[in-house]
Amino acid sequence: MKKRILVAAVGVPLLILVLSFAPGWATLLLAALLCGIGAHELMHAAAGEKGRPLIPLTIAAAVLVTADAYWT
Predict the structure, then answer these.
(1) CA distances from 23 to 11, 12, 19, 33 (A)
(2) Enclosing H/E stretch for 49
(3) What residues contact 39, with CB distance under 8 A and at least 6 apart?
(4) At what angle do helices 24-46 and 55-71 cross, to 10 degrees?
(5) What single-letter DSSP state applies at residue 47?
(6) What is the average per-residue pLDDT within 20-24?
(7) Residue 47 and residue 25: Cα distance in Å, rounded?
(8) pTM for the whole thing?
(9) Which of 6, 12, 37, 62 has the highest CB neighbour count under 10 A?
């Protein structure tokens, strides 16, 4: 829990800076990164060891859906 709070303490100001001052592609990269991390966390929590082969596919899908939403 302590690790997640420290990540949020660094990540939230970085998110605000990127959303405020960076170009659109930087926002896309940040959103894709966050979606990939979220998909990784979800697969480890929900699927466990049985779903291990699907983790890279799920992360790739999360990143590609984010990129597709940006380009459409």
Answers:
(1) 18, 18, 8, 16
(2) none
(3) 58, 59, 61, 62
(4) 150
(5) T
(6) 89
(7) 32
(8) 0.74
(9) 62
